[in-house]
Write a structure and sequence with these properties.
The longest helix is centred in the N-terminal third of the chain and has 39 residues. The termini are far apart. By secondary structure, this protein is of the alpha/beta class. The chain has 11 helices and 5 strands. The mean pLDDT is 90. The chain has a 5-stranded parallel sheet with strand order 2-3-1-4-5, with helices on both faces. The chain folds into 2 domains: 89 residues, Chorismate Mutase Domain, subunit A (Up-down Bundle), CATH 1.20.59.10; 175 residues, Rossmann fold. The chain is elongated, with a radius of gyration of 24 Å.
Length: 277
Protein backbone atom coordinates (compact mmCIF):
# COMPACT_ATOMS: atom_id res chain seq x y z
CA UNK A 1 0.00 0.00 0.00
CA UNK A 2 1.46 3.44 -0.94
CA UNK A 3 2.22 5.99 1.76
CA UNK A 4 -0.87 7.95 2.76
CA UNK A 5 -0.01 11.20 4.59
CA UNK A 6 -3.63 11.41 5.77
CA UNK A 7 -3.60 7.99 7.45
CA UNK A 8 -3.21 8.53 11.24
CA UNK A 9 -2.20 4.91 11.83
CA UNK A 10 0.59 5.14 9.29
CA UNK A 11 1.83 8.42 10.81
CA UNK A 12 1.84 6.87 14.28
CA UNK A 13 3.84 3.93 12.95
CA UNK A 14 6.44 6.27 11.46
CA UNK A 15 6.65 8.18 14.71
CA UNK A 16 7.15 4.86 16.45
CA UNK A 17 10.19 4.37 14.23
CA UNK A 18 11.57 7.70 15.44
CA UNK A 19 10.98 6.68 19.05
CA UNK A 20 12.74 3.38 18.47
CA UNK A 21 15.73 5.16 16.92
CA UNK A 22 15.88 7.52 19.92
CA UNK A 23 15.82 4.51 22.23
CA UNK A 24 19.02 3.36 20.53
CA UNK A 25 20.63 6.80 20.29
CA UNK A 26 20.25 7.96 23.89
CA UNK A 27 22.00 5.01 25.59
CA UNK A 28 24.79 5.34 23.02
CA UNK A 29 25.10 9.03 23.86
CA UNK A 30 25.33 8.24 27.57
CA UNK A 31 28.03 5.62 26.90
CA UNK A 32 29.96 8.17 24.85
CA UNK A 33 29.82 10.76 27.64
CA UNK A 34 30.88 8.16 30.22
CA UNK A 35 33.85 7.26 28.01
CA UNK A 36 34.68 10.97 27.67
CA UNK A 37 34.80 11.31 31.46
CA UNK A 38 37.17 8.34 31.75
CA UNK A 39 39.37 9.88 29.05
CA UNK A 40 39.35 13.17 31.01
CA UNK A 41 40.68 11.33 34.06
CA UNK A 42 43.53 9.92 31.99
CA UNK A 43 44.32 13.33 30.51
CA UNK A 44 44.17 14.93 33.93
CA UNK A 45 46.66 12.41 35.35
CA UNK A 46 49.01 12.93 32.42
CA UNK A 47 48.56 16.73 32.22
CA UNK A 48 47.36 16.47 28.63
CA UNK A 49 45.14 19.19 27.08
CA UNK A 50 41.61 18.19 26.13
CA UNK A 51 41.55 19.50 22.58
CA UNK A 52 43.10 17.47 19.76
CA UNK A 53 42.07 19.11 16.45
CA UNK A 54 43.61 16.31 14.41
CA UNK A 55 41.49 13.74 16.25
CA UNK A 56 38.35 15.79 15.60
CA UNK A 57 39.06 15.92 11.87
CA UNK A 58 39.52 12.14 11.76
CA UNK A 59 36.18 11.60 13.52
CA UNK A 60 34.30 14.01 11.26
CA UNK A 61 35.79 12.52 8.09
CA UNK A 62 34.78 9.05 9.30
CA UNK A 63 31.24 10.21 10.09
CA UNK A 64 30.78 11.80 6.66
CA UNK A 65 31.99 8.62 4.98
CA UNK A 66 29.62 6.46 7.03
CA UNK A 67 26.30 8.04 6.03
CA UNK A 68 24.51 8.59 2.70
CA UNK A 69 25.80 11.77 0.99
CA UNK A 70 22.51 13.61 1.49
CA UNK A 71 22.94 13.29 5.28
CA UNK A 72 26.67 14.06 5.45
CA UNK A 73 26.39 17.77 6.30
CA UNK A 74 23.74 17.14 8.95
CA UNK A 75 25.73 14.28 10.44
CA UNK A 76 28.83 16.48 10.65
CA UNK A 77 26.84 19.25 12.35
CA UNK A 78 25.46 16.73 14.86
CA UNK A 79 28.89 15.34 15.66
CA UNK A 80 30.45 18.78 16.00
CA UNK A 81 27.87 19.42 18.71
CA UNK A 82 28.56 16.06 20.36
CA UNK A 83 32.31 16.68 20.26
CA UNK A 84 31.87 20.15 21.79
CA UNK A 85 29.75 18.69 24.61
CA UNK A 86 32.33 15.95 25.15
CA UNK A 87 35.20 18.44 25.35
CA UNK A 88 33.30 20.68 27.78
CA UNK A 89 32.50 17.67 29.94
CA UNK A 90 36.19 16.74 29.99
CA UNK A 91 37.26 20.29 30.88
CA UNK A 92 34.77 20.39 33.73
CA UNK A 93 36.11 17.09 35.04
CA UNK A 94 39.72 18.31 34.85
CA UNK A 95 38.96 21.66 36.47
CA UNK A 96 37.06 19.96 39.29
CA UNK A 97 40.11 17.77 39.90
CA UNK A 98 42.93 20.29 39.51
CA UNK A 99 41.52 23.71 40.35
CA UNK A 100 42.98 24.83 43.65
CA UNK A 101 42.25 28.57 43.51
CA UNK A 102 39.29 30.85 43.07
CA UNK A 103 38.29 31.89 39.55
CA UNK A 104 37.98 35.68 39.51
CA UNK A 105 36.21 37.49 36.67
CA UNK A 106 37.11 41.13 36.11
CA UNK A 107 36.25 43.70 33.48
CA UNK A 108 34.46 46.95 32.83
CA UNK A 109 31.05 47.60 34.30
CA UNK A 110 28.34 45.48 32.64
CA UNK A 111 30.78 43.22 30.80
CA UNK A 112 28.88 40.15 32.05
CA UNK A 113 30.92 39.18 35.12
CA UNK A 114 27.96 38.30 37.31
CA UNK A 115 25.95 36.52 34.63
CA UNK A 116 28.89 34.39 33.48
CA UNK A 117 30.17 33.95 37.01
CA UNK A 118 26.88 32.50 38.20
CA UNK A 119 26.70 30.20 35.18
CA UNK A 120 30.30 29.05 35.64
CA UNK A 121 29.75 28.41 39.34
CA UNK A 122 26.74 26.25 38.50
CA UNK A 123 28.71 24.39 35.81
CA UNK A 124 31.57 23.60 38.18
CA UNK A 125 29.37 23.15 41.28
CA UNK A 126 31.26 25.91 43.12
CA UNK A 127 30.06 28.75 45.37
CA UNK A 128 29.65 32.16 43.72
CA UNK A 129 30.48 35.57 45.19
CA UNK A 130 29.98 39.10 43.85
CA UNK A 131 32.23 41.68 45.54
CA UNK A 132 29.72 44.48 44.95
CA UNK A 133 27.12 42.41 46.82
CA UNK A 134 29.62 41.77 49.60
CA UNK A 135 30.35 45.50 49.87
CA UNK A 136 26.64 46.26 49.99
CA UNK A 137 26.23 43.76 52.83
CA UNK A 138 29.11 45.36 54.75
CA UNK A 139 27.87 48.92 54.15
CA UNK A 140 24.18 48.20 54.56
CA UNK A 141 23.26 50.08 51.40
CA UNK A 142 23.50 49.75 47.60
CA UNK A 143 26.88 50.38 45.96
CA UNK A 144 25.56 53.36 43.98
CA UNK A 145 24.15 55.02 47.10
CA UNK A 146 27.37 54.38 49.02
CA UNK A 147 29.54 55.88 46.27
CA UNK A 148 27.31 58.96 46.07
CA UNK A 149 27.29 59.41 49.85
CA UNK A 150 30.99 59.00 50.71
CA UNK A 151 32.81 59.92 47.49
CA UNK A 152 35.28 57.91 45.49
CA UNK A 153 38.28 57.99 47.86
CA UNK A 154 36.35 56.66 50.86
CA UNK A 155 34.43 54.25 48.64
CA UNK A 156 37.71 52.67 47.50
CA UNK A 157 38.85 52.30 51.11
CA UNK A 158 35.63 50.51 52.04
CA UNK A 159 35.83 48.37 48.91
CA UNK A 160 39.42 47.36 49.73
CA UNK A 161 38.43 46.43 53.29
CA UNK A 162 35.65 44.17 51.95
CA UNK A 163 38.03 42.54 49.46
CA UNK A 164 40.66 41.83 52.13
CA UNK A 165 38.07 40.40 54.50
CA UNK A 166 36.85 38.16 51.68
CA UNK A 167 40.38 36.95 50.90
CA UNK A 168 40.90 36.01 54.53
CA UNK A 169 37.65 34.13 55.01
CA UNK A 170 36.15 32.94 51.71
CA UNK A 171 36.35 29.33 50.49
CA UNK A 172 38.60 28.23 47.67
CA UNK A 173 37.97 27.17 44.99
CA UNK A 174 35.03 29.41 44.18
CA UNK A 175 33.90 31.78 41.44
CA UNK A 176 34.12 35.54 42.07
CA UNK A 177 32.81 38.52 40.10
CA UNK A 178 34.79 41.67 40.85
CA UNK A 179 33.31 45.15 40.90
CA UNK A 180 34.35 47.11 37.82
CA UNK A 181 36.86 49.30 39.67
CA UNK A 182 38.46 46.72 41.96
CA UNK A 183 41.57 46.07 39.84
CA UNK A 184 42.28 49.81 39.66
CA UNK A 185 41.57 50.43 43.35
CA UNK A 186 44.70 52.27 44.62
CA UNK A 187 44.24 50.91 48.14
CA UNK A 188 44.65 47.32 46.96
CA UNK A 189 48.11 45.92 46.19
CA UNK A 190 49.15 43.45 43.46
CA UNK A 191 49.52 40.89 46.26
CA UNK A 192 45.89 41.46 47.25
CA UNK A 193 44.75 40.84 43.69
CA UNK A 194 46.93 37.74 43.36
CA UNK A 195 45.50 36.38 46.61
CA UNK A 196 41.99 36.59 45.18
CA UNK A 197 42.70 33.79 42.68
CA UNK A 198 43.09 33.23 38.94
CA UNK A 199 41.99 36.52 37.40
CA UNK A 200 40.26 36.33 34.01
CA UNK A 201 39.60 39.58 32.18
CA UNK A 202 36.33 39.60 30.22
CA UNK A 203 37.24 41.87 27.32
CA UNK A 204 34.04 43.19 25.75
CA UNK A 205 33.47 46.17 23.42
CA UNK A 206 32.81 49.40 25.31
CA UNK A 207 29.60 50.20 23.33
CA UNK A 208 28.13 46.82 24.32
CA UNK A 209 28.80 47.44 28.02
CA UNK A 210 27.50 51.03 27.84
CA UNK A 211 24.28 49.93 26.16
CA UNK A 212 23.63 47.37 28.93
CA UNK A 213 24.39 49.95 31.60
CA UNK A 214 22.19 52.64 30.05
CA UNK A 215 19.21 50.27 30.11
CA UNK A 216 19.49 50.05 33.92
CA UNK A 217 20.20 53.72 34.55
CA UNK A 218 23.53 55.54 34.65
CA UNK A 219 25.66 55.22 37.82
CA UNK A 220 26.62 58.35 39.83
CA UNK A 221 30.07 58.71 38.28
CA UNK A 222 28.46 59.15 34.85
CA UNK A 223 25.06 60.63 35.54
CA UNK A 224 26.26 64.23 35.80
CA UNK A 225 28.58 64.16 32.78
CA UNK A 226 27.68 66.16 29.63
CA UNK A 227 28.27 63.08 27.47
CA UNK A 228 28.20 59.90 29.60
CA UNK A 229 29.21 57.63 26.71
CA UNK A 230 32.37 59.66 26.04
CA UNK A 231 33.27 59.64 29.73
CA UNK A 232 32.62 55.89 29.99
CA UNK A 233 34.82 55.29 26.96
CA UNK A 234 37.58 57.41 28.55
CA UNK A 235 37.42 55.43 31.80
CA UNK A 236 37.41 52.09 29.99
CA UNK A 237 40.34 53.07 27.78
CA UNK A 238 42.34 54.07 30.86
CA UNK A 239 41.52 50.80 32.60
CA UNK A 240 42.39 48.46 29.73
CA UNK A 241 46.14 48.30 30.55
CA UNK A 242 45.22 47.86 34.23
CA UNK A 243 42.98 44.89 33.45
CA UNK A 244 45.62 43.42 31.15
CA UNK A 245 48.33 43.74 33.80
CA UNK A 246 46.19 42.21 36.54
CA UNK A 247 44.78 39.33 34.51
CA UNK A 248 46.23 35.84 34.42
CA UNK A 249 44.12 35.12 31.33
CA UNK A 250 41.87 36.96 28.89
CA UNK A 251 38.51 35.91 27.47
CA UNK A 252 37.74 38.03 24.43
CA UNK A 253 34.01 38.50 23.84
CA UNK A 254 33.80 40.73 20.75
CA UNK A 255 30.10 40.02 20.36
CA UNK A 256 27.14 39.06 22.51
CA UNK A 257 27.04 35.27 22.87
CA UNK A 258 24.60 32.81 24.41
CA UNK A 259 25.70 32.04 27.96
CA UNK A 260 26.42 28.41 27.09
CA UNK A 261 28.82 29.38 24.30
CA UNK A 262 30.57 31.96 26.46
CA UNK A 263 31.00 29.35 29.22
CA UNK A 264 32.50 26.88 26.74
CA UNK A 265 35.07 29.53 25.76
CA UNK A 266 35.74 30.33 29.39
CA UNK A 267 36.36 26.64 30.17
CA UNK A 268 38.99 26.55 27.41
CA UNK A 269 40.73 29.59 28.94
CA UNK A 270 40.67 28.07 32.40
CA UNK A 271 41.94 24.71 31.19
CA UNK A 272 45.04 26.45 29.86
CA UNK A 273 45.77 27.68 33.38
CA UNK A 274 45.61 24.27 35.08
CA UNK A 275 47.06 22.01 32.37
CA UNK A 276 50.76 22.29 31.49
CA UNK A 277 51.18 23.12 27.81
Amino acid sequence: MPDDPHNPAQLDALRGGIDAADADLLPAFVRRMEAAVRIADCKCAADIPVSRPGREHVILDRIRASVPPEFADDAERLYRTILAISCSRQRIRILNAKLGRRIVLCGIKHCGKTRLGQALAKTLALPFFDTDALLEADAGKPVRALYKEVGEARFRELEAATIRKFIASAPSPAVVALGGGVVSNPVLTPDDLHALGIIVWLDVPVPTAFERMAREGLPPFLADKPDPSVEFNRICTARRPVFRAAADAVLELPQVLPVEEAIDRLLIVLESKVISQ
